[in-house]
Protein backbone atom coordinates (compact mmCIF):
# COMPACT_ATOMS: atom_id res chain seq x y z
CA UNK A 1 0.00 0.00 0.00
CA UNK A 2 2.89 2.37 0.66
CA UNK A 3 3.90 4.11 -2.56
CA UNK A 4 7.25 3.02 -3.97
CA UNK A 5 8.69 6.54 -3.66
CA UNK A 6 7.85 7.30 -0.04
CA UNK A 7 8.63 5.65 3.25
CA UNK A 8 5.91 3.68 5.03
CA UNK A 9 4.03 5.55 7.75
CA UNK A 10 2.50 2.46 9.35
CA UNK A 11 2.65 -1.30 9.22
CA UNK A 12 -0.11 -3.76 10.05
CA UNK A 13 -0.04 -7.51 10.38
CA UNK A 14 -3.33 -9.36 9.93
CA UNK A 15 -3.98 -12.78 11.45
CA UNK A 16 -7.19 -14.78 11.17
CA UNK A 17 -8.25 -16.48 14.36
CA UNK A 18 -10.83 -18.89 15.70
CA UNK A 19 -10.43 -17.43 19.20
CA UNK A 20 -8.10 -14.89 20.77
CA UNK A 21 -7.54 -13.73 24.34
CA UNK A 22 -5.35 -10.74 25.20
CA UNK A 23 -4.22 -9.65 28.64
CA UNK A 24 -4.69 -5.89 28.83
CA UNK A 25 -3.60 -5.44 32.43
CA UNK A 26 -1.33 -7.77 34.43
CA UNK A 27 -2.24 -8.98 37.91
CA UNK A 28 -1.22 -6.50 40.62
CA UNK A 29 -1.35 -7.34 44.31
CA UNK A 30 -4.81 -8.79 44.99
CA UNK A 31 -6.22 -7.63 41.64
CA UNK A 32 -6.51 -10.32 38.97
CA UNK A 33 -5.21 -9.78 35.47
CA UNK A 34 -7.70 -8.27 33.00
CA UNK A 35 -8.32 -9.87 29.62
CA UNK A 36 -10.30 -9.14 26.45
CA UNK A 37 -11.48 -12.00 24.29
CA UNK A 38 -12.84 -12.45 20.77
CA UNK A 39 -14.45 -15.29 18.88
CA UNK A 40 -13.71 -16.07 15.23
CA UNK A 41 -12.33 -13.00 13.56
CA UNK A 42 -9.27 -10.95 12.81
CA UNK A 43 -6.31 -9.84 14.89
CA UNK A 44 -4.74 -6.61 13.68
CA UNK A 45 -1.24 -5.81 14.97
CA UNK A 46 -0.38 -2.18 14.23
CA UNK A 47 2.74 0.01 14.39
CA UNK A 48 3.13 3.67 13.44
CA UNK A 49 6.35 5.20 12.09
CA UNK A 50 7.80 8.69 12.28
CA UNK A 51 5.88 10.94 9.90
CA UNK A 52 2.56 9.11 10.33
CA UNK A 53 -0.41 11.41 10.65
CA UNK A 54 -4.16 11.21 11.17
CA UNK A 55 -4.87 11.55 7.42
CA UNK A 56 -3.62 7.98 7.03
CA UNK A 57 -6.02 6.42 9.56
CA UNK A 58 -9.29 6.29 7.58
CA UNK A 59 -7.53 4.55 4.67
CA UNK A 60 -5.89 2.10 7.07
CA UNK A 61 -9.13 1.20 8.84
CA UNK A 62 -11.02 0.87 5.54
CA UNK A 63 -8.34 -1.28 3.92
CA UNK A 64 -7.79 -3.60 6.88
CA UNK A 65 -11.48 -4.19 7.57
CA UNK A 66 -12.39 -4.70 3.89
CA UNK A 67 -9.52 -6.85 2.62
CA UNK A 68 -10.88 -10.28 1.64
CA UNK A 69 -8.91 -12.72 3.80
CA UNK A 70 -11.59 -14.61 5.73
CA UNK A 71 -12.95 -17.84 4.33
CA UNK A 72 -16.64 -18.77 4.39
CA UNK A 73 -17.93 -22.33 4.72
CA UNK A 74 -18.01 -22.56 0.90
CA UNK A 75 -14.37 -21.45 0.60
CA UNK A 76 -15.16 -17.98 -0.72
CA UNK A 77 -12.90 -15.17 0.55
CA UNK A 78 -14.70 -12.26 2.24
CA UNK A 79 -13.77 -9.31 4.44
CA UNK A 80 -14.15 -9.44 8.20
CA UNK A 81 -17.15 -7.11 7.83
CA UNK A 82 -18.81 -9.50 5.37
CA UNK A 83 -18.06 -12.63 7.43
CA UNK A 84 -18.94 -11.02 10.00
CA UNK A 85 -16.26 -11.58 12.64
CA UNK A 86 -14.79 -9.99 15.74
CA UNK A 87 -11.75 -7.70 15.59
CA UNK A 88 -8.88 -7.50 18.09
CA UNK A 89 -6.45 -4.61 17.63
CA UNK A 90 -3.03 -4.91 19.26
CA UNK A 91 -0.35 -2.19 19.34
CA UNK A 92 2.89 -3.82 18.21
CA UNK A 93 5.94 -1.54 18.23
CA UNK A 94 8.17 -4.47 17.29
CA UNK A 95 6.75 -4.36 13.74
CA UNK A 96 8.95 -1.27 13.30
CA UNK A 97 12.17 -3.03 14.22
CA UNK A 98 15.18 -3.40 11.96
CA UNK A 99 18.02 -5.81 12.55
CA UNK A 100 21.41 -4.20 13.09
CA UNK A 101 24.07 -6.76 13.81
CA UNK A 102 22.71 -9.04 16.52
CA UNK A 103 20.30 -6.41 17.86
CA UNK A 104 17.03 -4.93 16.73
CA UNK A 105 16.56 -1.17 16.66
CA UNK A 106 13.32 0.79 16.58
CA UNK A 107 14.52 4.23 15.43
CA UNK A 108 11.84 4.54 12.74
CA UNK A 109 8.92 4.19 15.17
CA UNK A 110 7.00 7.34 16.13
CA UNK A 111 7.15 8.66 19.69
CA UNK A 112 4.98 7.17 22.46
CA UNK A 113 2.56 10.09 22.79
CA UNK A 114 2.12 10.41 19.04
CA UNK A 115 1.73 6.63 18.69
CA UNK A 116 -0.86 6.52 21.47
CA UNK A 117 -2.93 9.27 19.79
CA UNK A 118 -2.76 7.54 16.38
CA UNK A 119 -3.59 4.15 17.89
CA UNK A 120 -6.56 5.51 19.85
CA UNK A 121 -7.99 7.21 16.77
CA UNK A 122 -7.41 4.10 14.63
CA UNK A 123 -9.30 1.97 17.18
CA UNK A 124 -12.18 4.48 17.15
CA UNK A 125 -12.38 4.41 13.35
CA UNK A 126 -12.50 0.60 13.35
CA UNK A 127 -15.23 0.63 16.02
CA UNK A 128 -17.25 3.12 13.94
CA UNK A 129 -16.87 1.06 10.75
CA UNK A 130 -18.01 -2.13 12.46
CA UNK A 131 -20.93 -0.33 14.16
CA UNK A 132 -22.01 1.04 10.75
CA UNK A 133 -22.23 -2.48 9.30
CA UNK A 134 -25.73 -3.91 9.71
CA UNK A 135 -24.34 -7.45 9.28
CA UNK A 136 -21.86 -6.88 12.14
CA UNK A 137 -24.48 -5.25 14.39
CA UNK A 138 -26.87 -8.15 13.81
CA UNK A 139 -24.15 -10.69 14.67
CA UNK A 140 -23.00 -8.81 17.79
CA UNK A 141 -19.48 -8.32 16.47
CA UNK A 142 -16.97 -7.00 18.99
CA UNK A 143 -14.05 -4.65 18.37
CA UNK A 144 -11.62 -4.98 21.26
CA UNK A 145 -8.11 -3.66 21.68
CA UNK A 146 -4.94 -3.91 23.68
CA UNK A 147 -3.33 -1.31 25.91
CA UNK A 148 -0.85 0.96 24.13
CA UNK A 149 2.63 0.94 25.65
CA UNK A 150 2.21 -2.24 27.73
CA UNK A 151 3.55 -5.71 27.19
CA UNK A 152 0.59 -8.00 26.73
CA UNK A 153 0.04 -11.75 26.85
CA UNK A 154 -1.75 -13.17 23.80
CA UNK A 155 -3.42 -16.55 23.47
CA UNK A 156 -4.41 -17.32 19.90
CA UNK A 157 -6.18 -20.24 18.26
CA UNK A 158 -5.98 -20.16 14.50
CA UNK A 159 -6.85 -22.43 11.60
CA UNK A 160 -3.46 -21.81 10.04
CA UNK A 161 -0.68 -19.25 10.08
CA UNK A 162 -2.51 -17.16 7.51
CA UNK A 163 -0.81 -13.82 8.23
CA UNK A 164 -0.51 -10.82 5.93
CA UNK A 165 1.73 -7.77 6.24
CA UNK A 166 0.39 -4.51 4.84
CA UNK A 167 2.27 -1.18 4.81
CA UNK A 168 0.74 2.26 4.46
Topology:
Elements: E1 10-17, E2 19-25, E3 34-38, E4 41-48, H1 57-66, E5 70-71, E6 77-78, E7 86-91, E8 98-100, E9 103-105, H2 112-132, H3 134-139, E10 143-145, E11 154-157, E12 163-167
Helix pairs in contact: 1-2
How would you describe what is shown here?
The structure is a single chain. The chain has 168 residues and is of the alpha+beta class. It has three helices and twelve strands, in the order ββββαβββββααβββ. The protein has a five-stranded mixed β-sheet, covered by helices on one side. Strand 5 (70-71) and strand 6 form a beta hairpin. Helix 1 (57-66) crosses helix 2 (112-132). The chain starts with 9 loop residues before the first strand and ends with a strand. The mean pLDDT is 94.
